[in-house]
Design goal:
- By secondary structure, the protein is an alpha/beta fold.
- It has 5 helices and 10 strands, in the order ββαβααββαβαββββ.
- Helix 1 runs parallel beside helix 3.
- The longest helix is centred in the middle third of the chain and has 10 residues.
């Protein structure tokens, strides 16, 4: 069965965005990229909330971005994209919109053959998946910055989730990649 992997960057104080939505603190320095390229190669499906999809679902990197970002976004268009929304049912892309019966629909998708699933976010979707017990792996790139305020990674979580640390990797830039699985 496919696994749902929450993979994202987070600040040391637990924020996924600054107070004005900024992500300029997110660095991709030496040694930060190969793990991300391998991660994206290991998935064939991406789950987005509507806002995250509108911002990033069809993102095309500029010419001056890092080679890692170019490499990652070269493969994103071939992934199957699901958008979870209560307000939108379709758009002019190939994305599949899910508006209800989230747990049932996600379990059907997990049963399909193929690679794992990237839970891209945003914050509301992460909370929904947490509260439905749908996340199998937490892969967090902790960045060496403290924002003091912004959008927290975890908000309104209803029950405790026990995790097992399965991998840690440090990079020269100070980013630490932490991978946890949910304890059964």
């Amino acid at each position: 069965m496919k696994k749902i992997i929450l993979d994202l960057a987070v600040t040391l104080d637990g924020f996924i965005e600054g107070p004005n939505g900024e992500i300029d603190w997110c660095i991709m320095g030496e040694g930060d990229g190969s793990d991300f390229i391998d991660f994206v190669a290991g998935i064939d499906t991406i789950f987005y909330g509507r806002i995250s999809y509108e911002l990033w679902g069809n993102y095309q990197p500029h010419e001056n971005v890092s080679p890692v970002v170019k490499e990652v976004y070269k493969s994103i268009p071939e992934k199957t994209k699901y958008v979870f929304s209560t307000t939108k049912t379709t758009d002019n892309s190939n994305a599949i919109f899910i508006n209800s019966n989230i747990k049932e629909r996600v379990m059907e998708i997990k049963q399909q053959p193929g690679k794992d699933i990237w839970l891209y976010g945003g914050g509301k979707l992460i909370t929904t998946f947490m509260n439905l017990g749908l996340i199998d792996v937490f892969r967090l790139a902790v960045h060496p910055v403290i924002l003091g305020s912004g959008k927290p990674l975890f908000n309104n979580i209803k029950e405790r989730v026990s995790l097992k640390l399965t991998e840690t990797k440090a990079s020269k830039s100070g980013v630490i990649l932490l991978t946890y699985t949910v304890k059964q």
